[in-house]
Design a protein that fits this description.
448 residues, two-stranded antiparallel ribbon, 13 strands, 38% helix, binds iron/sulfur cluster
């Protein structure tokens, strides 16, 4: 006799917490660096000691770190996104929570101080409105029944057309996000035949934005995610959308996820996107959102629509504008200081404050203020320091200062190898941290 045992809540958590790591929306690209995704099963060590399935340490905009329960309501999805491990193309066992089950689980973890907040996502199991209704029921239960008043990052399903659901999401979530996946309609159509650009994404985003402007309380910001390289889009395509979302729709964050092929999907033969490309996009994002570089400056970072993988965009822009340098560290404006590679917003502020008291005339002071000397020295001058100002020095400078090169293939292979030993065989996300093509299991193995 075959006895079918349904998975218990912890098995569901282990699986659906792991599937949610595919969504990088709560990864912080702070300081222009993209932080590697956690292990495939969503385990992130708290204090480096006790790992908990589904728990992820996220950095908030105010610099605080929160432990979030990052989980999918279900990993079953009826949609056909050509790159997605949850799409209907991939033959594997799917899991799903019940509303009360997930709300209770979160409450339990919160009371035990395992998590401080919730990041809730889902595949689309019936239609976007029905799925959204179920996610809202979880959040409503968490808020009303269990009295949780903290941080909830709630996904709004692409294609949610019911205004009542969007209003409820805005009321209950702290942060909302609709995954845009591609920067334009034409590019989106290359990776999905079912997603609708205008009605499914832009309109709900605009509605949320309007609600946030008109309503007191409720969610405080929108974010989205783009999958990089799946539709052969250029970095410039992404940058144009980036500017639109930040400047016109007031988005708080955009997250970038390098495409990697998943077996059984239509893009399984498509080459993976190098992680360094994702990394450069985060750096460009930082220049657009935080440093507020203008359009002319940002355009200098591109070559035929792509960012240079060898150097970070800020260095590239500085080299292209070499005539502006070296800058006098004691007289340059705050905005000019921000243009110097190796000087970030904090260091620029400290320099401006310090030089009101005394002249800055040595490297030690700069270092103490947070300046990365290796990058900054060729571009600044002060008493006792004047770098060679010659165009000829541009090329070696460019090469020497090139920061954060692509992860070494050997390191990526080693990471992949490590994952291969942690029963990754059951999970197409095994490539999440190493960026290498996953060896997806056979349907027979999955059914077992
Ligand atoms: S809608 Fe989301 S979960 Fe569903 S297939 Fe597309 S990307 Fe995957």
């Amino acid at each position: 006799m075959l006895i079918q045992q349904s998975p218990d809540v912890y098995e569901k958590l282990r699986h659906l917490g792991g599937m949610a790591t595919d969504d990088v929306l709560s990864v912080n690209g702070a300081e222009g660096r993209s932080i590697p995704r956690p292990d495939w099963h969503g385990i992130a060590a708290r204090g480096g000691v006790t790992p908990h399935a589904g728990v992820y340490r996220a950095a908030m905009p105010n610099g605080k770190r929160l432990s979030l329960l990052r989980v999918m309501f279900t990993d079953y999805c009826m949609m056909d996104c050509f790159y997605c491990p949850n799409s209907h193309w991939v033959p594997r066992k799917r899991y799903g929570f019940k509303v009360d089950e997930l709300a209770k689980l979160f409450d339990e973890m919160h009371r035990r101080q395992t998590v401080d907040g919730l990041f809730l996502s889902s595949g689309i199991f019936k239609d976007p409105n029905a799925t959204q209704e179920r996610l809202l029921a979880v959040v409503e239960t968490v808020r009303r029944k269990y009295g949780f008043r903290g941080y909830i990052h709630l996904k709004v399903m692409p294609g949610t057309t019911d205004t009542g659901l969007i209003v409820a999401a805005q009321r209950l979530g702290t942060r909302l996000s609709i995954n845009m996946e591609q920067p334009s309609e034409e590019l989106l159509n290359r990776i999905s035949t079912m997603k609708r650009w205008n009605a499914g994404m832009l309109q709900p985003m605009l509605r949320i934005q309007r609600l946030m402007e008109e309503t007191y309380g409720g969610s405080v910001g929108q974010a989205t995610q783009l999958v990089v390289g799946a539709a052969d889009e250029t970095d410039w395509d992404i940058h144009v959308r980036q500017r639109h979302l930040y400047r016109e729709l007031g988005f708080k964050r955009i997250y970038y996820s390098a495409f990697r092929p998943i077996k059984y999907t239509p893009l399984e033969e498509h080459p993976p996107t190098p992680l360094v490309r994702e990394h450069r996009l985060y750096q460009l994002d930082w220049l657009t959102r935080v440093y507020r570089f203008n359009d002319d400056e940002l355009a200098l970072a591109f070559d035929d629509g792509f960012l240079d993988h060898r150097a970070d965009p800020k260095l590239r822009i500085a080299v292209e504008q070499y005539d502006r340098f070296p800058m006098d560290i004691n007289t340059a404006s705050h905005d000019d200081l921000l243009r110097v590679p190796g000087i970030g917003p904090m260091a620029a502020e400290r320099i401006v404050r310090q030089r009101m008291r005394h002249t800055i005339d040595n490297q030690r002071d700069l270092q103490a203020m947070g300046v990365v000397l290796k990058r900054a020295l060729p571009f600044v001058r002060f008493a006792g320091h004047r770098p060679v100002r010659a165009k000829q020095s541009m090329l070696p400078l460019f090469q020497a200062l090139s920061s954060d090169p692509a992860p070494a293939p050997a390191a990526a292979a080693a990471a992949h190898e490590r994952h291969a030993h942690t029963d990754c065989a059951a999970c197409p996300l095994s490539s999440a941290t190493c960026g290498m093509a996953a060896t997806a299991p056979s349907p027979a193995a999955l059914a077992a």
